[in-house]
Write a structure and sequence with these properties.
single chain; mainly alpha; 2 helices; about 55% helix
């Protein structure tokens, strides 16, 4: 019996990646089904919302890594006398 968690199994990781790509493609293709009412010119671009969401996520991850550099403590932080 395999003791690995279901998220650690390679076949499930592959399924999750493929499912993510399919979901992304469906969400981008859904933009053909409606007309966005843009407040600004850039809001009306094709796949703007997908791109904006992706770039926002990247910015949050990079910001968290940068914040981690400043908030990081040494391994012996709680063991110091």
């Amino acid at each position: 019996m395999d003791d690995k968690h279901w998220l650690e199994r390679p076949e499930n990781i592959t399924k999750l990646w493929r499912g993510g790509w399919v979901l992304l493609a469906l969400l981008v293709l859904a933009e053909f089904t409606y007309h966005p009412h843009a407040y600004f010119v850039i809001d009306g671009w094709f796949a703007f919302n997908a791109l904006f969401g992706f770039l926002s996520c990247v910015a949050m991850v990079l910001g968290a890594k940068l914040l981690g550099v400043y908030l990081k403590r040494g391994e012996d932080y709680y063991d110091r006398d």
